[in-house]
Amino acid sequence: MKKTKYLLVLLIGFLSCIKDVPTKFNEAALNDTFISLDGESVLFKDILETHEGKMIVIDIWASWCGDCIKGMPKVKALQKANPEAAYIFLSLDRGQDAWKRGIKKYDVQGEHYYLPNGKDSAFGNFVNIDWIPRYMVVDSKGNIKLFKAVEADNNQITEALE
């Protein structure tokens, strides 16, 4: 009997730690401002709207991030295997110059945006960035199909793109 109670307490504790994974971006995240390569301010919802009807892979990265750089060949393989998807790279670099140099240096292909306030932003708070690289998949209707992956070759990314 004691063993059953103990297991029940553990199970309840474990289940109470599981958070719901969002399937939609909240208003604050959608209205957060990013900077495009040409220096224009753009709302996140406008970035998504330009790809309405397409699957979107979001890669949150930075040029100073060793794991991000090591993962770039996997991102390129993902792009080659899924060319119909849009690839959006959101940078947490410490400055725009470093961000732009990183894109060129690592030949990162896709759309690029800089998040001026990094993790301390409405988008950063919504996504709860605790590690980069961070990959997300958004479906053709704007729903979040995959909220979090930290490896570009994660099977969940491929499954979400199918």
Descriptors:
162 residues; alpha/beta; seven-stranded mixed β-sheet; Glutaredoxin
Short summary:
The chain is an alpha/beta fold. Helices cover 40% and strands 21% of the residues. The chain has a seven-stranded mixed sheet with strand order 2-1-5-4-3-6-7.
Lay out the secondary structure.
Layout: H1 2-17, H2 27-30, E1 33-36, E2 41-43, H3 44-49, E3 56-61, H4 66-81, E4 86-91, H5 96-105, E5 111-114, H6 122-127, E6 134-138, E7 144-149, H7 155-161
Parallel strand pairs: 3-4, 4-5
Antiparallel strand pairs: 1-2, 1-5, 3-6, 6-7
- Which overall shape is indicated by the principal axes computed on the Cα atoms? globular
Our estimate of the beta-strand percent is: 15-25%
The secondary-structure class comes to alpha/beta
In the sheet with the most strands, the strands line up as 2-1-5-4-3-6-7
Structure description:
The protein has 162 residues and is α/β, with parallel strands linked by helices. It has one domain (22-161): Glutaredoxin (3-Layer(aba) Sandwich). Helices cover 40% and strands 21% of the residues. The protein has helices at residues 2-17, 27-30, 44-49, 66-81, 96-105, 122-127, 155-161, and strands spanning 33-36, 41-43, 56-61, 86-91, 111-114, 134-138, 144-149. It has a 7-stranded mixed β-sheet.
